[in-house]
Automatic annotation (TrEMBL):
Gene3D superfamilies: Vaccinia Virus protein VP39 (3.40.50.150). It is found in: Cytoplasm. It comes from the Bacteria. This is Ribosomal RNA small subunit methyltransferase J. S-adenosyl-L-methionine binds at R112, D113, E128, R129, D185. HAMAP family: 16SrRNA_methyltr_J. SUPFAM superfamilies: S-adenosyl-L-methionine-dependent methyltransferases.
């Protein structure tokens, strides 16, 4: 799980502990991510912070750190769980009364959408190619598996710290059967208006950067998903955003700020 992008320097300065975080674990993670273990973060740097019970990605700034972690138990995730939320996502993947399709989430990020699906009863194959985000997801899933309210959902998710294209491009006669529904939510700059979400997005953008070939890469990802999905591909977009790869979907579901584009693939 090391930095593979040869065209862009690794934006991660290193790993630190929060004071009460276990030093041995920090050293292990620094080795795994191939970055230094730091006593103090340099000014204006991006680091992974190891706490007593969780990992965070932190942008260390003079006027206060900005931190993000994968959280399925507390805060907004807990609220969403109690309120049942995100029905539109469930409808988009084809969930109906008594029917919960298996979903391959090809763009894991902070795992929020995957967790909503798993909480509703779907089994989810979760792919995230960035080593830091894969690590944060692993950490969030471990904590969710330790909590009685979220244990069952966490156990429905299988995390793959790899590029989903590597998986989708290996031809196999049963791939379509194994992956009836593929869900994609590629990064779309400036899509979320809420202040906290905006800050988190900024942090992720610092980590992930913006590819010169974004549109081309997205088109390849959609095409691979269309070839592999047995029933449908679902793409999350900003409400007024362009179609991924300029491909018109079979139909759309529109919310206030988000749109789900659904491509039916059976019989393609
Ligand atoms: C906008 S985020 C997804 C947010 C996610 N839906 C959530 O609920 O937190 C997009 C993520 O997809 C990942 N990604 C993009 N292309 C990928 C690929 N080919 N394979 C695996 N992960 C990919 C990026 O690293 C990024 O973390």
């Amino acid at each position: 799980m090391t930095w593979k992008n040869k065209t862009r320097p690794n934006p991660l300065a290193g790993v630190i502990t929060s004071g009460d975080g276990p030093a041995r674990r920090a050293a292990e993670l620094a080795a795994r991510l191939d970055v230094p273990l730091l006593a103090h973060p340099p000014a204006d740097s991006l680091v992974v912070r190891v706490g007593a019970n969780h990992l965070e990605l932190v942008h260390c700034q003079p006027h206060g750190d900005l931190a993000v972690r994968v959280e399925f138990v507390l805060g907004a995730a807990g609220y969403r769980r109690q309120k049942g939320g995100r029905e539109m996502l469930l409808r988009a993947v084809g969930a109906r009364k008594g029917e919960r399709p298996d979903v391959l989430d090809g763009t894991g990020g902070l795992g929020r959408d995957s967790f909503v699906l798993a909480q509703a009863g779907c089994r989810v194959q979760l792919f995230e190619r960035h080593p830091v985000l894969a690590l944060l997801l692993e950490d969030g899933l471990r904590r969710a598996a330790d909590s009685p309210e979220t244990k069952a959902a966490a156990e429905r998710i299988t995390l793959h710290g790899q590029d989903v294209l590597e998986y989708l491009k290996v031809p196999g006669p049963d791939l379509r059967e194994k992956t009836p529904v593929i869900y994609l939510d590629p990064m779309y700059p400036g899509r979320d208006k809420a202040a906290k979400a905006k800050k988190e997005l900024q942090l992720l953008q610092l980590l992930l950067g913006d590819s010169q070939n974004r549109e081309h890469e997205e088109a390849i990802l959609l095409e691979a998903a269309l070839q592999a999905a047995g029933k449908r591909v679902v793409v999350k977009r900003p409400r007024r955003g362009p179609f991924l790869g300029r491909q018109k979907p079979s139909y759309c579901l529109e919310g206030r700020s988000t749109r789900f584009d659904i491509y039916l693939t059976r019989g393609r």
